[in-house]
Specification:
Helix content: 25-40%
Strand content: 15-25%
Number of helices: 10
Distance between the termini: 18 Å
Organism: Proteiniborus ethanoligenes
Order of helices and strands: HHHEEEHEHEEEEEHEEEHEEHEHEH
Domain Peptidase M20 dimerisation: 190-281
Cofactor: Mn(2+)
Shape: elongated
Keywords: Hydrolase, Manganese, Metal-binding
Number of strands: 16
CATH class of the largest domain: Alpha Beta
CATH topology of the largest domain: Aminopeptidase
Strand order of the largest sheet: 1-2-4-3-5-16-6-15
Number of domains: 2
Protein name: Amidohydrolase
């Protein structure tokens, strides 16, 4: 029998070192040359076979177990954010970007799991695919990886991933959060351009004022959720950018509006997209203006498999106490493109709560002072390992 806790703790210093070295070279989006080079170098040292996708920025490793069986995919996002770091850490990034969402820890955990799995191939059947994914923050790397065959040859039968930090606000530090179904929302973006007729501010009657039109649109959009969606169904329509005009005495020709939409139900998602345009069209026509409208479908809702999650929880009890496993009763309205992988194969995504204080307080994800508690990283490795080996040997 493999003592997973001991094995994870035995390489704790390596896991932390991987995290720190990745933390110093954060890259953004789908262009991660240094990050990909670093990860492939570690896989080379371990003797793990791999290939790259998405122009070399995504890495798919393969570990073959002892005998035929199913294949499980383990996913880690590896991109950073265009945030200038202010943590004051000895290994702080200096390139203007930052791992302000814990993806450096995700990559380190997957490297740790890969090392132990590769050294213990005789302890499990089937295959493990390592899915190192770029572009989770934007514009999304899971979908192009899937389109380029990441989930095939061999076909992935189940998939698992985790997120560090404090995304699940009700999950105490050191504990994990699990969800038996919809865990995170779909995210979409609306782009609206209101076209009016500019004029001098002293002669508004000569204009078709796009600022007035846009103001009505913003207010009317709030009624979609408050008056058209069932009150017990989670949905969000938030206007996050409104831009128009360039001087105090000039009514402009155009105002642009942008915003985010979050939903859990796919039919509601499409209904909101349709209603936004209907509202924009009606208001602009009433004022004699016109509009352009673009609705960008981004990430679908992240939905865990109830059956797989139950199996994972039983495995997790071998690593942490039952009291340290917190069931999330309601989803969060943040989004994750892990959802694309979970559409391809059943699996689970879980949270490991490990925020670390900077200047005496915890800072949220995407903040210049966000940090994670490295002493919990071994636990992420052990949880992924136990869940992987148990599932493969039962299937």
């Amino acid at each position: 029998m493999l003592n997973i806790i001991d094995r994870a703790k035995n390489i704790e210093n390596e896991i932390i070192n991987w995290r720190r070295e990745l933390h110093q070279i954060p890259e953004v989006g789908l262009n991660l040359p240094q990050t990909a080079k670093y990860i492939t170098a570690q896989l080379d040292k371990m003797g793990i076979e791999y290939h790259t996708l998405v122009k070399g920025n995504a890495i798919v490793g393969l570990i073959k177990g002892n005998g035929k069986g199913k294949t499980i995919g383990l996913r880690a996002d590896i991109d950073g954010l265009p945030v200038k770091e202010e943590t004051g850490l000895d290994f702080q990034s200096t390139n203007g970007n930052m791992h302000a969402c814990g993806h450096d820890g995700h990559a380190a955990i997957l490297l740790g799991a890969a090392k132990i799995l590769n050294e213990n191939r005789d302890k499990f059947r089937g295959n493990v695919k390592l899915l190192f994914q770029p572009g989770e923050e934007y514009p999304g790397g899971a979908k192009p990886m899937i389109e380029e065959g990441a989930m095939e040859s061999p076909k992935v039968d189940a998939v698992m991933g985790l997120h560090l930090g404090n995304l699940g606000k009700g999950i105490p530090t050191g504990k994990i959060g699990v969800c038996y179904g919809a865990m995170m929302a779909a995210v979409d973006v609306m782009h609206i351009k209101i076209k009016g007729k500019g004029a001098h501010g002293a002669y508004p009657h000569q204009s078709i004022d796009p600022i007035v039109i846009a103001s009505e649109v913003v207010l009317a959009l709030q009624t979609i959720v408050s008056r058209e969606i069932n009150p017990v169904e989670p949905a969000v329509v938030s206007v996050t950018r409104i831009e128009g005009g360039f001087n105090h005495n000039i009514i402009p020709d155009i105002v642009e509006i942008q915003g985010t939409i979050r939903t859990l139900n796919e039919s509601t998602r499409h209904r909101i997209a349709k209603r936004i345009e209907e509202i924009v069209k009606g208001i602009t026509m009433a004022h004699g203006g016109s509009y352009e409208y673009k609705y960008e479908y981004c990430y679908p809702a992240l939905v865990n498999s109830e059956e797989f999650t139950k199996t994972f929880v039983e495995s997790a009890k071998k690593i942490v106490s039952e009291e340290d496993i917190v069931e999330m009763k309601t989803p969060v309205m943040g989004a994750e493109d892990m959802s694309f992988f979970l559409r391809e194969a059943p699996g689970t995504f879980f949270y490991l709560s490990n925020p670390r204080e900077i200047d005496g307080q915890y800072y949220p994800h995407h903040n210049p002072k966000f940090d994670i508690d490295e002493s919990q990283l071994w636990k992420g490795v052990a949880l992924v390992l136990q869940g992987t080996i148990d599932w493969l040997n039962k299937n």
